[in-house]
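PROTEIN DESIGN WORKSHEET
SECTION A - STRUCTURE
LENGTH: 181
TOKENS:
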């Protein structure tokens, strides 16, 4: 009987944590139309955007969240491995958003948060710039993490950030938008 009771308690606790994770959501006013705005496009490779990172807000982080990770990824980039446009790690647990433009001005990040290199090889936001005539899907992912700080160097690649963050993820919320030119 004790074994069954322990199983019931464990299942209940896991279910409660999963329900909290299921309530974790992310939104972006800049991407609310489902399209990447001109301001979020890069100003290189033939694109003429303002290279302004979109705003992102999140709510209902699960209990035990100690920090957040925000990434912006283009799975359709013609590289064979997609393209990481933005990586912000070590966002404090009391933060609930990043303002528009935070990716180009490190001072606008919450205290303690860091931007790590993207696929450009530099830290900071790199705007959308799909090849002409194609439409790409851009996904912002917010991960609620069980650690205060990811144990990675400041120059960690997006792949390393992803690997280490996946081992410490409590919940994930995403916002996607299409971009074309």
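SECTION B - SEQUENCE
RESIDUE ASSIGNMENT:
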């Amino acid at each position: 009987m004790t074994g069954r009771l322990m199983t019931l308690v464990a299942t209940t606790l896991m279910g409660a944590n999963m329900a909290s994770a299921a309530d974790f959501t992310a939104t972006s006013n800049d991407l609310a139309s489902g399209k990447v705005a001109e301001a979020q496009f890069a100003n290189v490779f033939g694109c003429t955007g303002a290279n302004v990172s979109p705003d992102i807000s999140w709510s209902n982080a699960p209990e035990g969240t100690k920090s957040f990770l925000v990434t912006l990824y283009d799975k359709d980039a013609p590289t064979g491995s997609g393209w990481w446009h933005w990586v912000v790690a070590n966002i404090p647990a009391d933060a609930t958003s990043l303002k528009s433009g935070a990716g180009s001005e490190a001072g606008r990040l919450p205290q303690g948060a860091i931007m790590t290199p993207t696929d450009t090889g530099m830290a900071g936001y790199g705007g959308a710039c799909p090849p002409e005539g194609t439409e790409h899907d851009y996904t912002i992912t917010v991960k609620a993490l069980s650690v205060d700080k990811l144990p990675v160097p400041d120059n960690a690649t997006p792949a390393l950030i992803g690997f280490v963050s996946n081992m410490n993820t409590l919940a994930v919320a995403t916002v996607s938008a299409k971009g074309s030119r």
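SECTION C - NOTES
Strands lie at 25-27, 56-59, 67-74, 83-92, 97-98, 114-115, 135-145, 169-180.
The helical segments are 2-23, 158-166.
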